[in-house]
Structures are given as C-alpha cells and as structure tokens.
Amino acid sequence: MTGRARRDAFTLIEVLVVIAIVAVLVSVLLPALGKARLQAGALACGARLQQLSVGLALYLNEYDQTLPQTRGPLPGGGESVIGALFGGTKGTLPFYGVSTIGAERRPLNRFVVDSPVPPDSEPGRAELAVYRSPVDRGSENTGIPVPGLGRCDSMYDFVGSSYTLNDHSLEGEGAATLVPPGGGRMPMVAQASRTWVIGTHTIYNFQQDGDRGMRWFGAGAVQASLAFLDGHVRMRVAVPVGVRNTTPDYTFLP
Predict the structure, then answer these.
(1) E strand or H helix at 248, and its extent?
(2) Cα gap 8→10, rounded to integer Å
(3) Which residues form the domain of 59?
(4) Where does the pLDDT of residue 96 fall: very low under 50, low under 70, confident under 90, or very high at 90 and above?
(5) Is 72 a member of any domain?
(6) How far, in Å, CA of 45 to CA of 162, rounded?
(7) What are phi and psi of 104, to 5 degrees?
(8) Distance between CA atoms of 49 and 156, rounded to whole angstroms?
(9) Helical residues (DSSP H) of the chain, grouped into ranges
(10) Is 174 exposed, middle or buried (0-12, 13-18, 19+ CB in 10 A)?
C-alpha cells in the first residue's frame, strides 16, 4: 500500500483537549443560563401578580374599597380575619383555616380564575397556577414554633399562595395596615402609587426584625415583587434589613 495510512480514531490527547474545552464552555455558560432562568421566572412572577392586581381592582369596585377578607379560626379560640385567606387554595398549614378553607371560600378567586373551582368539601385541593410564583422557594423560618412547620419549600404549598396581602406591618400580625382590626373598608390612603397591596411573601422576610430566609430572587439581598394600589407592578424591589415599613420604593402604611 502506498501513501499515508488513514487515521480512523482520535488520540487520547485530542479527546482530553475536547473535554477540557467543553468543560470551560460549560463553566462560562452556566452562570449566564442561571441568570436567564431567574429573570424568566421573575417576569412570570410579575405577570401573575399583574393578573391578581387586575382582579383586585374589580373586587374593590364591587366591595366598596374593602380588600378580600375571610375569617379563620385562631389557635386559642375565636375567629379573626386571616390575610393569607384573601385568595388561592388550601395549604398544608394546619392553623387559621389554611388547610380547610380552600379556593371556593377565598374571595379574590372569582375575580381572577375563569373556570369554576371545586367546593372545599371535596378531597384534595384546586390547583390555581396564577397564585404560584415560579420563583417561590418557601421559607427557612416560617415563624411557626411547631416541629415540622418551622420551614417550608413552597409558600404556595404551605398557605395556598406565593403572594400575600398587605394586612399588617413589619411590627407583627397585630399591627394593621390596609385591613382594619376585625375587618372592613380600607382606611384613606395617602399615596396609592407607593402603598403596596399584594406582593410575594418575601416582603415580610424581616418581620419583627427576624430573617425568614426567603431569598427567592437569588442568594444575595432579599427582593420582592409588589402590586400597588394604583394598579402598577414592580419586580425585584429591594427589601432592606430590619423593620422598615417605608422605603424609597414602597410603604406598608396607608
């Protein structure tokens, strides 16, 4: 046979070089892909929050400036308006009616969800995608001092919604904001464009000067997506450490 022999295989050195190049490319691309995925999740979260904001505007028009409210049982007896029950579906938290009061009796739902929801008497729960944020990572500290309930992987699963109502300030559950004690119409609001009304649970991360570990939008500083009383939505707003009810970006207060 004349001429040079044809080589049909790669050498070990060539294979190792290709593997090294692929490893470098993956290490460069993975952070960018992670950021893109997070940004896509944040955009979807904001879009769902906008849907809830539109439904809330319809609700407020029909119910004379009264936010959606449902009374639930208190652990020590009696009942009170429970902010977590404003909309969404059944959660796993076995207190305040969260695990028994489902989509049928959560008042905002009929202004947001097109199809009829099954009655709460049926087993299981209705799945309402508009209330589940794609970035919902739960809470490292739920504030519930009961074994097995101290943390959760999803606030949607825990209380039935990734979003919460502005019914109290960062001082604690008893410090009412847009829902008066015992329920009723909102107080007069000074600046509707600055007062948030529905937001991701991360807005309460530093309630009572604690840290609930709700870093849904990345491992760094806490952020929240918020719908304001005038109807506009802001995504990934910075939530400062400590009890800060008013910041340059938003306020809990009327």
Answers:
(1) none
(2) 7
(3) 12-238
(4) very high
(5) yes
(6) 9
(7) -60, -40
(8) 14
(9) 12-62, 155-159
(10) exposed
C-alpha pair distances (Å), 220 with each of 139, 201, 216, 217:
15, 17, 10, 8
Distance of CA 123 to the CA centre of its chain: 25
Residue type, 44: A
In a domain, 250, yes or no: no
> What pLDDT sits at residue 27?
65
| 2 within a domain of the structure (yes/no) | no
Count how many domains the chain has.
Answer: 1
What digits encode the pLDDT tens for the residues 119-175? 888 888 899 999 999 999 999 999 999 999 999 999 999 999 999 999 999 999 889
25: left (phi over 0), alpha (psi -120 to 50) or beta: alpha
Query: What's the mean pLDDT in 74-88?
Result: 92
The tokens for 90 are 């059944």
pLDDT the model gives residue 118: 82
Q: 3-class DSSP state for residue 164?
A: strand
The confidence score (pLDDT) of residue 65 equals: 92
User: Would residue 49 count as lying in a domain?
Assistant: yes
Q: Are strands 79-81 and 163-165 parallel, antiparallel or unpaired?
A: unpaired
**32 pLDDT above the threshold of 80:** no
pLDDT at 224 exceeding the cut of 90:
yes
Q: What is the pTM of this model?
A: 0.86
Q: How far apart are CA 43 and CA 133, in angstroms?
A: 10
